[in-house]
Amino acid sequence: MPADHILAIDQGTSATKAVLVDASATIVARASTPLTLGTPRPGWVEQSADEIWASVCSSVAACLTGHDPARVAAVALSTQRESLLLWDRATGSPRGPLLSWQDQRTDCTDLRSHARRVEQLSGLPLDPMFSAAKARWLLDMYGRDSACLGTVDAWLLFRLTGEHVTEIGNAARTQLFDVRARDWSPELLELFGVPPETLPELRTSVGPFAGVRGVRPLLDGTPIGAVMGDSHAALFAHAGWRAGQVKATYGTGSSIMSRGDPSKWSPGAVCLTLAWEDETGPTHAFEGNIRSTGATLTWLGEFLGMTPSAVAELAADSSDGVHLVPAFGGLAAPWWDDHARGSISGLTFATRLPQVARAALEAIAFQVEDVVSAIATLTGPVETLLVDGGPTANRTLMQLQADTSGRAVARSLTAELSALGAAHLAGRFVGVWDDLDALDRPREQYRPAEGLDSRQARMAAWHRAVGHVRVG
Question: How many CA atoms are closer than 13 Å to the CA of 218, on its beta-carbon side?
């Protein structure tokens, strides 16, 4: 039988997924392994690099059960992005935990005078979410000798191939990378105190990468066809190479992204990043990141002793003026205020849990619309928002997003969109598919039903609530 399947591994914050995609671009097998998240101190969020690697191996094995591994033409990787770890070059053993993109232990106060220059070079505002400050913390804590730094893609590539390399789109999220020159920035490395020898070599999104080894039942030497950051891969799966496409990925946090012209960007509300680079050249993107979307429902559920889905089902038709601003670890785009703290406001004697639950759903929609509006100032009008991720299965949230945005919302019916996007790029690169435009992308449409005056009044009230928690 021909080698015409792509095995895509999607390594995320809460789980590692693996999907097997056949020559018709249909997912024919899937597996998932949950992951734990440690919060040893307020603001600290970390994971085990060894647990992440074990989850990759178990997901691959489960996904390929009953399938011939010889039919896998290539492996594709989609990974969480700004999370960072340090490991020993000689032994391959992690030094300390993986610091999550959510982690806030790295205070950038001493670098505030350099904030404008950092943003001009990297395309990213000075913020603990990005990897550079994490790199400084890890090196100071665990030492620089024989050290390898890397985001999750670099860690997995090291374990899969033995090479210390990273994909260029993931590198663009570290804040150590010159987004226009498409290379590590000597100026940023010096500023953050990161020795260049600790960093991985850069590769385009299609490599070249060495073949995999030691991941049963995959055959040793199976090529790695593509590596992408998870949000970049989701944009690619939405056919994001086309002009005017804006996507929002809902997960623990959210990424809102559109292909973008670097010449039109200036430091401010949204980032300039490198989405991918393949044989056709680099594709830059505008992006806004939200720290707490699905995490908002998770937090409220844990607070109430309920599941996130139960919280969503409890939501009333109106919040009756209650606002929940989920700045649990500060606010990211478009505010970039890491000192902001969360709040619930507008409470009255009549407020009950259904109104607070509705406020949690509204907070997700409000935050997404704030970023979409910021991107629209750079790209032009956005008529349809392409959405994906677990929370999009909530129809109430999707209709609320359409009403809040005043835009059509097109929800992907493919649950594993990041994995599929990486698979599409890998499959095209190794010749499984020639024309990605021809692939089916099933979607569900939502259209706004709320009037303009009501929508604008709700947005104004939300912005007043956000203003009350902002510090920066």
Answer: 32
pTM: 0.90
Cβ contacts of 213-217, under 8 Å, gap ≥ 24:
213/160, 213/161, 213/162, 215/56, 215/57, 215/60, 215/160, 216/57, 216/61, 217/60, 217/61, 217/64, 217/69
- From the number of C-beta atoms within 10 Å of its C-beta (0-12, 13-18, 19+), residue 378 rates as middle
Q: What CA–CA distances, in Å, run from 308 to 45, 224, 265, 397?
A: 20, 36, 37, 13
Q: Please give the DSSP secondary-structure letter assigned to residue 153.
A: H
Residue 253 has a pLDDT of: 87
Are the beta carbons of 387 and 401 closer than 8 angstroms? yes
Q: How many residues does the chain have?
A: 472
Say what the pLDDT of residue 310 is: 94
Average pLDDT for 80-95: 96
Mean of the per-residue pLDDT values of the chain: 94
Pairing outcome for strands 165-167 and 201-203: parallel
What pLDDT, on the 0 to 100 scale, is given for residue 472? 63
Q: Which of 14, 76, 1, 81 is nearest to 47 (CA)?
A: 14
Picking from 205, 233, 239, 284, the residue whose alpha carbon sits closest to that of residue 389 is: 233
What values do phi and psi take at 318, rounded to 5?
A: -145, 150
Name the burial class of residue 445, with classes exposed (0-12), middle (13-18) and buried (19+) by CB atoms within 10 angstroms of its CB.
exposed
CB–CB of 367/293 below 8 Å? yes
Angstrom distance (rounded) from CA 330 to CA 102: 10
Helix (H) or strand (E) holding 250: strand 246-250
As given in the structure block, the two tokens for residue 31 are 């597996």
Spatial distance between the Cα atoms of 362 and 350, rounded to a whole number of angstroms? 19
Q: Which amino acid is at 341?
A: R
- Whose CA is closest to 387, among 425, 414, 420, 366? 414
Q: Are strands 46-47 and 98-99 parallel, antiparallel or unpaired?
A: antiparallel
- With 0-12 / 13-18 / 19 or more C-beta atoms within 10 angstroms meaning exposed / middle / buried, residue 41 is exposed
* The predicted structure's pLDDT at residue 150: 97
Q: How far is CA 250 from CA 230, 262, 293, 367, 398, in A?
A: 12, 25, 7, 11, 11
